Amino acid sequence: MSIMSKRVFNLPIARLIRLAFAISLSSTMVSAFQFGQVQTGGGFTIFGRVSLPNGKPAARVKVYLEGGRGVTRDTISDDQGQYEIRSLPGGRYRVRAVNPDAPEQVCDPTESDTTRAYSNRLQIDVFLKFPLPEEKRNFNAGAVSVDEAAIPKPARKAYEQGLKLQKEKQTQLALAQLNQAIELYPSYVQALTERGNVLTQQNRLVEAEADFAQALKLNGKYAPAWRGIGYCQIQQKNFAAAVRNLENAFALEPNVPMTLFLLGYGNLSLNRYEEAKQCLQQALRIDEKIAARAHVYLGEIFAHEQKFKEAADEIRAYLKVKPDATDAAYLKELEATWRNKAPLKQP
Q1: Of 184, 209, 308, 341, which cross-links 232 as Cys (Cβ 3.0–4.6 Å)?
Q2: Which residues are CB-neighbours of 316 under 8 A, at least 6 positions away?
Q3: Which domain covers residue 213, as residue numbers?
Q4: What is the pLDDT of residues 231-289, one digit of tens each?
Q5: For the chain, where are the E strands, in sequence order?
Q6: What is the number of other CB atoms lying within 10 angstroms of the CB of residue 305?
Q7: What is the spatial distance between Cα 230 and Cα 270, in angstroms, rounded to a whole number?
Q8: Do 117 and 155 have their domain in common?
C-alpha cells in the first residue's frame, strides 16, 4: 500500500495533568512534619494509583521510587492500579511506572515530598502516556475557509492570548481564553480545535473529541481537527477509527511527520505491518527528531519479521537520538536480546 493511502496528524502532545493533593494542616501538625519528619515510628508510606493513557487503572505495572540519600524502591501495582511502598525516611521522592505489556507507554516522573504527608502517608499518582513527539507544535497549520473579517476582534484577541498562554504551559488560563473566544464567536474553527488540543492535554478526551467534531462540521477540510480526533482515538485504543480519520488529515496535509507517526502506530496496532512500516519510515525521512520513536515501532515490525539485526539497529538509532528516554534501560536490554537472536535467524 502506498503512503498516499494513509492518514496524517499534527496534534499537540497530550501531556496528562497530574493530580495535586493540597492538604490543610493545623499549626500543630505542621510543626510535627518539620523537615519531613513525623514524631512517630515506622517511617512514611507512599502510595497512589497508576493510570493508563485512557484513564483506566494500570494493573501489574512496575512502579519505581527514587529519593534523596540514595533511596530507591520498586513494586508492582495491583489489579486496580494501586501501589504502596512503606518504611521510607522523610524527604522528596520521584515516582514513575513502566508497563511491561506496552513498553511504548512512558510517563513523566511525578514528584512530591513528605511535608505534604498526612498521618505518615503521602499520595503520588502516576500517569502513563504514549510517547508522542514534543517539538514543532504548530498544530493549527491548515487552511480555514472562513472570512477572517467575520471574527470579532475580541474573539481573535482571546484566541491569540490562549495560544500564548498555551505555549507558556499555563493550561487553565489558556482554556479560559479559548472558552471566551468560542463564546464570542461559536464558529471559530481554530479556537475549537485549539481548545480540543488543550483538553487532550488534560486527558479529557471525550470533550476534546466533541470540539474537533464541531470544528469539522464547520470546516470538513481542516486537517488539524481530523488529526485531533485521530489522536483522541489512538489514546482510547480505537485504532480502526483513528486510522480512518488520520487518513483524512493525511489527504489534506501529506507531509506532516506526526501524522505519519500516528498512522504507523495505528496500523501497527491493527497488525497492518507493511502499511505501518511505510508510514513510520516516511515520518523519519521527513523529520527524524520529531518522529524518533518510530524507530522503536520499526524495531517491533522487524522482530515480527524475524529480522532481529534490523530490529536491534532501530533501537540503537532511537537511543542515539533520545539517549535520555524514560525507558532507555529497557530498550537497551531489548536491543541486546534481539542482537543475540540475530545470528540464529540471519546469516
Answers
A1: 209
A2: 335
A3: 3-11+132-291
A4: 999 988 899 999 999 999 999 998 899 999 999 999 999 999 999 999 999 999 999 99
A5: 44-51, 62-67, 72-76, 82-88, 92-98, 110-113, 121-123, 126-127
A6: 14
A7: 14
A8: no
